[in-house]
Write a structure and sequence with these properties.
Blueprint lengths: L8 H7 L1 H19 L3 H4 L4 H5 L2 H15 L8 H13 L7 H16 L5 H31 L8 E10 L4 E8 L13 E8 L2 E8 L9 E6 L5 H9 L5 E4 L16 E6 L4 H13 L5 E9 L6 H9 L5 E8 L8 E4 L4 H7 L5 E6 L1 H14 L6 E5 L8
Parallel strand pairs: 7-8, 7-11, 8-9, 9-10, 11-12
Antiparallel strand pairs: 1-2, 1-6, 2-5, 3-4, 3-6
């Protein structure tokens, strides 16, 4: 049973909000500097995001949000669900929470100095303990549920590369089947797989969206080669048919299941199309009648990946409407509508109806502009869903 917060904790934690606003990123950078000394914990984090500051900034924002809503945790439900999915994907263990907590509290004390009074340190210790207990309980439930599903498993399972398919000059798909030849759990379209890689003796973990329809035989991921991406280059240059990978069960809540039967516009750019391809393939297989509209932007429509698959989907009655935007080329598929230029938030907003949900996936700048633009135009933020990704920065 989770013990509630002590009565005085919320007020003291909320009183530290100005300090978190001023020093939050410094606190999280200090915390991560301590945590990265533990190889088992360091392996769970993307070192690119550590180096460029994205992860410390993201955690600082999360800590600040927790402080602001500590009396109303229901407002953090979506964020908690996302954290749980990410933790389960990389196999976070209960015994690692005290290590993280000690690093966080130590960083608060180091950065705030004398301002971090015993009362403040006690309150934040209690606040962290409560949050950790909530996450541990939720993660235990998810681990149990997924391992109990047909074809499900817990922790790592070994998969073999059955096939490699060159989708474009920069995108390669890898078809993966379990070495034990047993069925796998059917993923929810939009979910991702997490891989444990040994790169020159360094334990590294990365996640990639599943780009195939649910299939109990295996999964497909599609990886874009990033010239600066250590892991994406490893997949392209060194991962061949017959090689094996350690994989955790499908994870993530970026799925159409979250919106019931409501219509959806799927807006992507570049390799951000991968989770949407899974959604469209699954909809065709199931004969789903939901109104789906894919809006995808790519640099050159003549060389974009998956054009044949998208053309077939667009030609399938009632599967989806597909609009493509490109700065070069017009494509050859008559079943899809091609536009010159970049997709804009204004254009997408014009396609929405009163019940439409918009899913966005692509580079961070693209997502920022699209989500910000749709919000300014008046689309309810609760009807906008997004999945951050990057070829070497987490889910892609």
């Amino acid at each position: 049973m989770i013990q509630p917060l002590e009565s005085g904790t919320p007020a003291i934690v909320k009183a530290t909000i100005p300090a978190l606003e001023a020093h939050g990123v410094t606190i999280t950078k200090t915390m991560y500097a301590s945590l990265m000394r533990d190889p088992a914990i360091a392996a769970m984090f993307n070192q690119t995001d550590q180096a460029n500051g994205r992860q410390p900034h993201a955690l600082a924002a999360a800590v600040l949000a927790y402080a602001r809503h500590i009396e109303h945790p229901e407002k953090l439900e979506a964020a908690l669900n996302l954290i749980v999915e990410r933790h389960v994907a990389v196999i976070v263990k209960p015994e690692q929470y005290p290590v993280v907590g000690a690093a966080l509290l130590g960083a608060i004390k180091t950065v705030l100095g004398e301002a971090a009074t015993p009362a403040i340190m006690h309150a934040w210790g209690d606040a962290y303990r409560f949050l950790a207990d909530v996450l541990i309980a939720r993660e235990a439930r998810v681990y149990a549920e997924r391992s109990a599903l047909p074809g499900g498993w817990r922790d790592w399972r070994t998969f073999r590369v059955e096939r490699r398919v060159q989708e474009s000059d920069t995108v390669t798909s890898f078809w993966l089947v379990p070495v034990d030849s047993k069925p796998v759990m059917l993923h929810k379209p939009g979910q991702f797989l997490t891989f444990r890689l040994d790169r020159d003796g360094i334990d590294t973990r990365r996640s990639y969206s599943i780009s195939s329809a649910p299939d109990e035989r295996g999964y497909r991921i599609s990886v874009k080669r990033d010239p600066q991406g250590l892991v994406s280059r490893w997949f392209h240059d060194r991962l061949n048919v017959g090689d094996v990978l350690d994989v955790t069960p499908p994870a993530g809540d970026f799925t159409l299941a979250s919106i019931g039967a409501a219509p959806a516009i799927l807006v992507s750019a570049g390799i951000g199309i991968t989770p949407f391809l899974s959604m469209l393939l699954a909809a065709r297989t199931a004969g789903e009648r939901r109104a789906l509209h894919l809006v995808h932007g790519d640099h050159d429509l003549r060389t974009m990946p998956f054009e044949t698959a998208l053309s077939e989907l667009a030609a399938t009655e009632s599967t989806a409407k597909i609009d493509l935007f490109g700065s070069e080329g017009q494509g050859e598929a008559s079943s899809m509508t091609c536009h010159k230029g970049r997709v804009s938030a204004e254009w997408v907003f014009q396609q929405t109806g009163p019940e439409t949900h918009v899913f966005v996936c692509g580079p961070r700048g693209f997502q920022r502009d699209m989500i910000g633009g749709l919000t300014r135009l008046g689309l309810n933020r609760e009807r906008i869903h997004h999945e951050f990704f990057g070829s070497d920065e987490g889910v892609s």
